[in-house]
Each structure stands twice: as C-alpha cells, then as structure tokens.
Amino acid sequence: MASELRVDKIVPTGGIGSDSSTVKYAGGVVQIVEVNYCTDTTVTSTSFQQLMSGAITPKFATSKIRVEFNLDCSKVNYYSGYIQLLRGSTQLRGDGDGAADGTITVRHGHWNTASNFNTGGGFEQYAPKREYYTFLDAPNTTSAVTYNIKARTQNASYPIRFNRPNVEAAGSGSSHVKSRCTLTLTEYSS
Fold first, then answer.
1. DSSP secondary-structure letter at 116?
2. Could you report the per-residue pLDDT of 131-164, keeping only the tens digit for each?
C-alpha cells in the first residue's frame, strides 16, 4: 500500500522569519526545475548575449525562488568575461562593468608553471572552470517566471567559452570530455 502526503505549504513550527535587506527567509521546498545546457558555445560579443534560460510557475505569490547556476566556462588570458542573471528583463546580478556590486566575472585560465599544449605565457588558456552562483529571489507572482543567464566578453578578440573541451582546437573526436551548464530553480514556501 502506497501512502502520499499532500500539503499546501511546509512551514517550520517556529514560523518563517521576516526578510530584511541583507537576510531572506523561506520555508520548505515546493518544487524544483532544472535546465541543462550542453552546447559548446563561444561568446565574442562585448554586449550581453543569451546563454540559457529556465522557467518556473510559483504555486504561491509569497514564495521565494532560489536560482542556482553552475557554469562550465573558460576564458582565454587577458580581459574578463561577464555573466548576468535576469528575471525576465530585470537584472538581478551582474552589472558587467567589473566594478559594481553584484558583478559576476570570469577570469582567464589558471597560471601554469609546467609546459603543456594549452599554455600561453604560462596560462592554461582554455582550462574549464566551474563557476557557481546562487540568488534568492522574491518574484511575488503565481505567473510563470523566466530566469535568463547572459554572457559577454570584455574584448571580442578574447572570447568566453562554455562547455568546451579542454583543448586549443575545437576537437570533435577529442578524448577530452565536454561538460554542461545547469540552471536550477527551487521554489520555497514563505
């Protein structure tokens, strides 16, 4: 015999705290949406370009949405790459100027003292890095909400790359494993 428990909200016995400008509170998990992006992508634009998106329809207008994205990215040495998080067209994180609060910056590859096929002046140019970011949002709606991840480079001659094998050439047939980017949207009762 199978049992199933259905409730409208999961709230701690002590209640849920009140949000402030620096601390946000939420209760139990209501639903989770995960999006995977597996395309080998090179961004040469100095303007933000769409990388991936995911949508969630909150069950309650009071719910909080935790947006988590884990990016497999690499950057050639010199200049930076920038990432932006938006709810629809509203920017939540990533001013993209390298100086403002909330800027999400991807730097060049790792410094490497040993010579290998990816070195460029000591930098492991296309070494993939996992970049993880999280943001707790309060969209205040029960309509579908789309979260967008955008990327740009500081200089078009020095691109930012996503899901690229760790090789200089675009190497299809390479023995190097290509990874993926993920966007996870978790609704919490509040």
1. -
2. 888 999 999 999 999 999 999 988 898 888 888 7
Q: Total structural domains in the chain?
A: 1
Range of the domain at 143: 29-168+178-188
Instruction: Give the whole-angstrom CA distance, residue 122 versus residue 114.
Output: 8
Whether residue 18 lies inside any domain: the answer is: no
- Going along the chain, which residue ranges are E strands? 29-37, 41-43, 49-56, 64-75, 81-87, 90-93, 104-106, 110-111, 119-120, 123-124, 129-137, 145-153, 160-162, 181-188
Scan for tokens 């919490």, then name that residue: 188
Q: What is the pTM of this model?
A: 0.78
Digit-coded pLDDT (tens) for 9-56:
777 677 777 777 767 777 788 899 999 998 888 999 999 999 999 999
How do strand 104-106 and strand 81-87 relate by DSSP bridges? antiparallel
Q: Check which CATH number belongs to the domain holding 149 and give it.
A: 2.60.120.1340
